[in-house]
Amino acid sequence: MRGRLALIALAAPLALSACGDPAPTYIDQAWVRLSPNKDRPAAGYFVAHGGDAGTQLRGVLTDYALKVEMHETVEEGGVMTMKPVSSVDIPAKGTVAFAPGGKHLMLWGVNDTAISRGKMQLTFLLANGDRLLVDAVIRKPEGAAAPTPAPGPQPADNSAH
Ligand SMILES: [Cu+2]
């Protein structure tokens, strides 16, 4: 009798350990813009949201491109240029946007199957050991800016409600 009670007492702390996990870092709004020239790399964008603890983004992997790099856009002597970065801080409860004109991913050799499916999975490697799997929407170059139909005259809605 006594032995069985002791075992139950030992097991309880294990069952409780999953409660109260801190808010994790996550990634959303991921998309990839293909280059008009197939031999040039595509660019990738997303937003990283810091959890309760700050961390760093250490790299991005994918099975659907030959190579991925994190880049930042910098001005050197009045010329906009870009250079690879190996780590990007994601502050606690902060957001970091990879966006056109700023930080971005460069993806060489995006897989044709992924292109025809219109999305590709990216794996974001965090300094805290987390790996975040995120589907990025692939946009064709001509669709990079949302296609807006020519603003014609809107039909007036005179119907009584
Ligand atoms: Cu770049």
From TrEMBL:
Keywords: Signal
Family matches, as InterPro entries: LpqE-like (IPR007410), Lxx211020-like (IPR058248), PCuAC_sf (IPR036182)
First and last residue of the signal peptide: 1-20
Protein name: Copper chaperone PCu(A)C
Source organism of the structure: Sphingobium naphthae
